[in-house]
Design the sequence.
């Protein structure tokens, strides 16, 4: 009897233990499932919040800095066209300025070349035909015919003319039949010509030498 009673008690304890193990296992599975489900819901909630726009932002597109600063193609083309036109005008102005400067230089060169062509080589001058009936080569009165003919000889020797030149000095050249003159154009007054003349009887004043000086020796030159 005692053994039967012990066996029956042991079976009851084993059954209770098995039931307890089953209950614990079910609880563990239930709690684990709830934990996993909660984590999945939390992840979905986070992802959905990033993807779905809020009520305040619905229908509003974000503008990037590039979109805000972007210039319409038409305005950009117009601006580029204006820049090109301005550059072309500046280039034309520069070209015109260079052409004007070149023309001025060419004109000056032409004038100098003409003056040199008009001026004979040293020793090739002819006497200026005199109109004096009773010539007095040593007469240096500025109102005299002799003075006028000496000036004509200076213009002839240098290629200058009365309208564009200055006679700084005109006087005796060392003898009764010679004269020395200092003459320059209006522009190059600091580098005049020194001209020596010689009187040829029956013909007039003849240039015999012309030299361009590096400075103006005349006391009348400032």
Sequence:
């Amino acid at each position: 009897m005692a053994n039967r009673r012990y066996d029956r008690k042991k079976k009851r304890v084993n059954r209770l233990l098995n039931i307890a193990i089953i209950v614990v296992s079910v609880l563990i599975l239930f709690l684990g499932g709830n934990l996993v489900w909660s984590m999945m819901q939390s992840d979905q909630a986070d992802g959905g919040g990033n993807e779905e726009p809020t009520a305040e932002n619905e229908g509003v597109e974000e503008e990037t800095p590039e979109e805000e600063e972007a210039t319409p193609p038409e305005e950009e083309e117009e601006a580029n066209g204006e820049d090109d036109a301005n550059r072309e005008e500046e280039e034309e102005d520069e070209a015109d300025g260079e052409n004007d400067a070149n023309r001025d230089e060419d004109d000056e060169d032409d004038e100098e070349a003409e003056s040199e062509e008009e001026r004979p080589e040293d020793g090739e001058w002819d006497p200026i035909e005199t109109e004096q009936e009773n010539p007095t080569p040593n007469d240096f009165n500025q109102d005299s015919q002799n003075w006028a003919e000496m000036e004509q000889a200076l213009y002839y020797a240098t290629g200058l003319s009365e309208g564009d030149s200055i006679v700084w000095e005109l006087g005796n050249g060392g003898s009764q039949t010679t004269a020395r003159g200092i003459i320059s154009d209006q522009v190059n007054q600091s580098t005049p010509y020194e001209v020596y003349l010689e009187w040829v009887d029956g013909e007039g004043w003849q240039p015999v030498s012309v030299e361009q000086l590096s400075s103006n020796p005349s006391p009348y030159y400032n």
The longest helix spans residues 2-51. The helical segments are 2-51, 65-69, 73-118, 145-158.
